[in-house]
């Protein structure tokens, strides 16, 4: 009996402490639903469709509101004005990275995606400079992408017009581009080592977007004490990191400081130049995780977008026909498409933008955090508070896009059919934490898609009206359903 009483008293104290912690700061934070002890507002969030949950809550509490996903407050920014005000107008204060516990188990605060403070600034500055040195945004990177696009076409020809699932073929192309930048190597599409890497990356993206991972990220204790698919993510990321570490060791043996070949060489040279009397960020552990970040971000996001693009083009054959007519007219059949063509291909450019807008690949962005106490719209957000920015609310804004739930390239065209830019086009986020590889990704999407459509007609196995384009997951990322199609040579 005494033990029972003690347990009840202890549990009651925990609940009261939780309530006190949650309510003590609510007078300063933006409004939001009343949280329950320990679990906060978690029951008010649909982990299968977080973006819709945030939209519903914004209708009640406005564009800036507070959720407790567990015991800690999270400030949600919903809509273009709120996100722009935070990430651009107050870019420095909102530039920290919020927690992503499942991935942090492997990254441990290193790399470029989840690091913070001076480490993040130093590694990001180095990464952007090195990518420019390696030709990012210049002709030699475009040449690599064009060459890979031709390899992709040859691989698609081998299907002989038979039904195929394009997942791995479309993953290999962007993966080879990033491999050539990181460690100056491309793989044959049937290389088993390469296919193993692709499988790990693809599986990891699926699991990270599943409801269970949304639960784990908000209740991190589950990661250490519960079985589940999060362990598979950790295992896969460790596998890729181990593979990349082997490449780093090979580079150490063959390094010529006067002739850097790739990203790893530039990093190793930088590490040797550092003043070793002071702590350096340019360690091998930081290199392996930075390269892992580039490898994952540079492969899976682009391949998922390509996969979704082909599904949308199957669903909307009239769009495909207009794009192919423009390709025939501007590029023809006897040379490869190039980035210079884009300005003469407004409909194709609009189609690529519309794919990215419509699929809403990373609905709630990677989490941000504030670097200091900040007064924002008459609220006080304490230093370290996690901030979620709803990219969905911007990409699907009905004031900017006339029919946001419909796939229509006209969203990016003016009355004369010219390409029309939009400040609301934020699939890569914005501000100081925006995607470092945006230029490469946009180049790949344009060149891979135009090269495929230059060489093949896309044939669906079912009638377009029966094609389901609903994402199978919409957690961390929005992933398309699996499907098959035929690539018919033209």
Your description of this structure?
Interacts with chaperones HSP70 and HSP90; this interaction is required for initial targeting to mitochondria. Residues 1-25 form the signal peptide. With 490 residues, this protein is α+β, with helices and mostly antiparallel strands. The protein is built from 17 helices and eleven strands. The protein has helices at residues 2-24, 50-61, 80-89, 101-107, 117-133, 139-157, 167-183, 192-208, 211-218, 221-225, 230-254, 263-273, 284-315, 317-330, 346-359, 392-395, 438-455; strands at residues 64-68, 73-78, 96-97, 368-369, 374-376, 379-381, 386-390, 456-460, 473-474, 478-479, 485-489. A five-stranded mixed beta sheet has the order 1-2-7-4-3. Strands 5-6 form a two-stranded antiparallel ribbon. Strands 8-11 form a two-stranded antiparallel sheet. β1 (64-68) and β2 (73-78) form a beta hairpin. The N and C termini lie far apart (81 Å).
**How large is the count of helical segments?**
17
Give the structural class: alpha+beta
End-to-end distance: 81 Å
Shape: globular
**Which residues sit in consecutive blocks of at least 5 with pLDDT less than 50?**
5-27
Strand content: 5-15%
Strand order of the largest sheet: 1-2-7-4-3
Query: What's the rounded overall pLDDT mean?
Result: 91
Annotation, overall tally of beta strands: 11
Helix percent reads 40-55%
Rounded to an integer in angstroms, the radius of gyration calculated over CA atoms is: 24 Å
Instruction: Characterize the biggest β-sheet.
Output: 5 strands, mixed
Keywords: Endoplasmic reticulum, Fatty acid metabolism, Heme, Iron, Lipid metabolism, Membrane, Metal-binding, Microsome, Mitochondrion, Mitochondrion inner membrane, Monooxygenase, NADP, Oxidoreductase, Signal
Pathway: Lipid metabolism; fatty acid metabolism
Main location: endoplasmic reticulum
InterPro entries: Cyt_P450, Cyt_P450_CS, Cyt_P450_E_grp-I, Cyt_P450_E_grp-I_CYP2E-like, Cyt_P450_sf, Cytochrome_P450_fam2
């Amino acid at each position: 009996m005494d033990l029972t009483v003690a347990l009840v008293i202890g549990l009651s104290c925990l609940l009261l402490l939780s309530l006190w912690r949650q309510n003590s700061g609510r007078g300063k934070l933006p409004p939001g639903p009343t949280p329950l002890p320990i679990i906060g507002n978690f029951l008010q969030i649909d982990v299968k469709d977080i973006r819709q949950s945030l939209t519903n809550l914004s209708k009640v509490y406005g564009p800036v509101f507070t959720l407790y996903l567990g015991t800690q407050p999270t400030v949600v920014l919903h809509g273009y004005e709120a996100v722009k005000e935070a990430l651009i107008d107050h870019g420095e204060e909102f530039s920290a990275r919020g927690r992503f516990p499942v991935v942090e188990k492997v990254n441990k605060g290193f790399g470029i995606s989840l690091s913070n403070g001076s480490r993040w600034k130093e590694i990001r500055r180095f990464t952007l400079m090195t990518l420019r040195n390696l030709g990012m945004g210049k002709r030699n990177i475009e040449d690599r992408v064009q060459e890979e696009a031709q390899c992709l076409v040859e691989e698609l020809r081998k299907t002989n017009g038979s039904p195929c699932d394009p997942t791995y073929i479309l993953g290999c192309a962007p993966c080879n581009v990033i491999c050539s930048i990181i460690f100056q190597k491309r793989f044959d599409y049937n290389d088993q080592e390469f296919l193993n890497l692709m499988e790990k990356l693809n599986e990891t993206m699926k699991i990270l977007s599943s409801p269970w991972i949304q639960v784990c990220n908000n209740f991190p204790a589950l990661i250490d004490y519960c079985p589940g698919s999060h362990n598979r993510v950790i295992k896969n990321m460790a596998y890729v990191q181990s593979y990349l570490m082997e490449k780093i060791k090979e580079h150490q043996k063959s390094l010529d400081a006067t002739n850097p070949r790739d990203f790893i060489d530039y990093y190793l040279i930088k590490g040797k130049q550092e003043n070793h009397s002071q702590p350096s960020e340019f360690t091998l552990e930081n290199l392996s995780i930075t390269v892992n970040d580039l490898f994952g971000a540079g492969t899976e996001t682009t391949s998922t977008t390509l996969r979704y693009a082909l599904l949308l083009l199957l669903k909307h054959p009239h769009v495909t026909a207009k794009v192919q007519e423009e390709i025939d007219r501007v590029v023809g059949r006897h040379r490869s498409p190039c980035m210079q063509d884009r300005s003469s291909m407004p409909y194709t450019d609009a189609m690529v933008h519309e794919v990215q807008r419509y699929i809403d690949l990373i609905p709630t962005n990677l989490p941000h955090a504030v670097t200091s106490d900040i007064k924002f719209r008459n609220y006080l957000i304490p230093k370290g508070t996690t901030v979620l920015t709803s990219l969905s609310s911007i990409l699907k804004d009905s004031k900017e896009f006339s029919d946001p739930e419909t796939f229509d390239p006209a969203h990016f065209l003016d009355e004369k059919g010219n390409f029309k830019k939009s400040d609301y086009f934020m699939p890569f986020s914005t501000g100081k934490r925006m995607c470092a590889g945006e230029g490469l990704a946009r180049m790949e999407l344009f060149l891979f898609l135009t090269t495929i459509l230059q060489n093949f007609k896309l044939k669906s196995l079912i009638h377009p009206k029966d094609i389901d384009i609903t994402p199978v997951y919409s957690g961390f990322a929005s992933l398309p359903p699996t499907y098959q199609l035929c690539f018919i040579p033209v």
